[in-house]
Design brief:
GO terms for molecular function: DNA binding. This protein is an alpha+beta fold and 243 residues long. It has a domain of 76 residues. Helices cover 17% and strands 30% of the residues. Strands 1, 2, 3, 4, 5, 6, 7, 8, 9 and 10 form a ten-stranded mixed beta sheet that branches. β9 and β10 form a beta hairpin.
Amino acid sequence: MENTLSNRIKARLDALNMNATQAAVLSELGKTAVRDIIVGKSKSPTVATLARLAETLQCTVSYLVGDADHPQAFRSSDLEMQDFQIADVVGLLRSGIFQKPPKELVSYGRNVLYGHPIAPEHGLTLFKMGDNSMAGAGILEGDIITVAMPYNEKDFALYKHKYVVGVRYVVPPGLEELSLREVALHDGVIKLFTRPLGQQPDLIELSSSDPVQGAPTLFATTEDHGFSVLGYLIRVTRDFPDV
């Protein structure tokens, strides 16, 4: 996977006439982050890092890690709703579970990634619900979640979307929570919350409706944490076991 990741990053850099430092800066990563991945110094980039880099390189995470043959997951055509590919499920969504970033990219199985009319301007990624924190919204443990993010992050507006997938950062000790949350705007304040059944929701309140300067998808919370949006929900799919 390391060689594939390195080669595909270099291919996208060449296609966009961009160097590694430029890509790192545009992705809001450390200046040497992309070069470190290319030369193998950084052997375990996180999903969040790859998602940011994929947006800058105008491709999907699945393409970067070798699970898709084309940079863009879907063709721009009248048949986009019929397009599909098999892709890795790259994250397990669980509210309240804080962990250190994985040392290497983890796959939670493979599933069908279906096309969507927004695909030409968006990267599409698969996640899996790892709990019932959104059961009140009809989204259950085991459901496959398709999320989208504009290739140009500056086109993203958090308050316009009903559900988002994001990473809540706790620094220190450097822990992350990956979860699906509903978005609500009250009196100019954006709140992100879960929808469990029979339990109190877990609430994240943003200290500002504006993102952190220079990072269009990163927001500060009232608890002095950070919340980075990886994408917004566009589809939920569910397999029913044979009876």
